[in-house]
Task: structure prediction
Amino acid sequence: MSAESLRFDGRFRDGVNAREVPVGIERDGEDLVITAGEKVLRVALATVVADAPLPGVARLLALPDGGQIETDDREAAAALFPPRNRIDAAAFWLESRWPAALAAIPVIAGVTWLFVAQLLPLAADPVARMISPRIELAIGRQALSALDRIVLKPTELDPDTQEQIERRFRQFLEGEPGEENYELVFRAGAVGPNAFALPGGFIVVTDDLVRLAENEGELMAVLAHEVGHVRGRHALRLVLQNSGVVVLVTALAGDAVSMTLLAAALPTALLQSHYLRQFETQADEYAFAHLRRHGYSPQAFADMMRRLQRADAQAAGDAGVVRCIERAEAQR
Result:
């Protein structure tokens, strides 16, 4: 059907009341001529707005004065008002062929799952390795500042206790590559007995965790586990995986905005998500080997985890904690 010689019928409403008037519609150059008996209305075609086409549904043409024309001649309306772009055309094609649209749903869901569950985790590792140590340190500092604002408070441990733990930790790290880059950060707050590693070598230890440990070996076991997370850049990889493709791509740019996005997403990822089993296994293996080198048994880690289960209801039902205990006790 040629758009230059279109003639079709419709129903006109003036926009004031609901009464419909049968009309004939014809294109005349760049105008649309609407005829109702002896009355003729001429409007510029460019001022008429057509609704999106839906299969089996009458088309609605909005006139500039508030009036409307409804027509069942969808073919004529489509010729007069073709899809504005390829997306509109594709959407109409799918809507016109609903079996194909239904068949596409599981395909789209499968592709989405493949991307999120398989490709994003694979991409997070190389992207994390491409982020420079300087940028990683900046991310860690920003994340720590955010945690201080959200859940952490200044430590209540006395300076002598902090100094003693710090000194023993430095001895524990002696000979470790990049040992000078690690920093113990003591904090109180609403996170209970806990320790977590941030990018850049920051290891946050809560007062409750220090008090929970019955001996030096148990505390060093937890710290060694967190050093394993730092070495594997697990926190950075976790937030890259959880933040989706936008953050993943912007992280490659290495600009200040993308680094701020990563730092802002990190506290939530650490507090609400769990490391992948692979990350926990890697951190455990590092901790067990390091404990043995310093004369400690991996059983110290298992003992600390069991004590954590008794002190924290959430940890008691955490399958990851159970696996950590099993791995530690298997090392005896």
Summary: The chain is about 55% helix and 15% strand.
